[in-house]
Design brief:
single chain, 246 residues, rod-shaped, Jelly Rolls
Length: 246
């Protein structure tokens, strides 16, 4: 059918979003076109959901600049926040109460990123230097380890390093920490002793002071805590405290 006019147009049905969503499924034909009064846009049904015709974007194939992509409507929620289908980016709400994009994969950030709420980062893998600005709260790099070996080796390259020793069977010689230590790094060793006492020995990188000696024996059925701080000037792990009898 061809409609020709030089002084008039075609007036399509005008519906609100509520009225549009009330169209029965049997009448939802692919390509159904209407004007949405709530958003002042033409919309069409693509067989799965309603799409808004773009009135302020430029297209030029690959590399075209998108000026505006419209509004996010009440379509099905997506845990990913957006779905790429063919050449289309389908915007969706991330969950029932938050509108936005959610990414569950690895991310590479370039430039300045501003978050409106506190992001939760489960882990960071960094291949270069990670520089952080002033942070409200606490960021702590730490490493944990456990051993029943007679030659345990704690980690030393995290800001806080923890080593649990238990089930000792003989003389235990604590080896030099692994990794490259930075000034003021901390190692805390917890020794959980069984029903016998055992001898403790230390690598030469651990240094005692004139008024605090390195512990050389455990106490049966007791727990001991030993704390060191790295001194980059002396290249030594200086003993800070020994607490026994827990």
């Amino acid at each position: 059918m061809e409609i020709v006019s030089k002084n008039s147009g075609v007036l399509l049905p005008k519906l609100t979003t509520s009225q549009r969503d009330s169209i029965i499924s049997g009448d939802l034909q692919n390509g159904l076109l209407l004007y949405n009064n709530d958003v002042s846009k033409f919309q069409f049904y693509n067989g799965s959901y309603w799409k808004t015709l773009c009135d302020s974007c430029t297209s030029g194939g690959a590399g075209g600049t998108v000026v505006k992509i419209g509004v996010i409507n009440s379509q099905t929620k997506s845990a990913n926040g957006a779905v790429i289908s063919g050449d289309s980016l389908i915007m969706q709400t991330a969950d029932a109460s938050n509108v936005g994009l959610v990414s569950t994969g690895s991310q590479t950030f370039a430039g300045v990123k501003t978050f409106s709420s506190a992001p939760v980062i489960s882990s960071i893998t960094n291949t270069g230097t990670l520089t952080l600005p002033t942070v409200t709260g606490t960021i702590m790099q730490y490493a944990e380890g456990a051993s029943s070996s007679t030659a345990p080796t704690p980690t030393g390259d995290a800001r806080e390093n923890y080593l649990d020793l238990s089930s000792l069977t003989g003389t235990t010689t604590v080896g030099a920490p692994s990794g490259t230590a930075a000034n003021h790094n901390i190692i805390t060793i917890r020794v959980v002793e069984g029903g016998s006492t055992h001898t403790l020995a230390w690598n030469a990188i651990y240094r005692a002071s004139a008024n605090l000696a390195l512990p050389t024996i455990t106490t049966a059925n007791k727990t001991m805590y030993i704390k060191f701080m790295y001194n980059s000037t002396a290249s030594k792990w200086d003993l800070l405290s020994v607490l026994d009898g827990f």
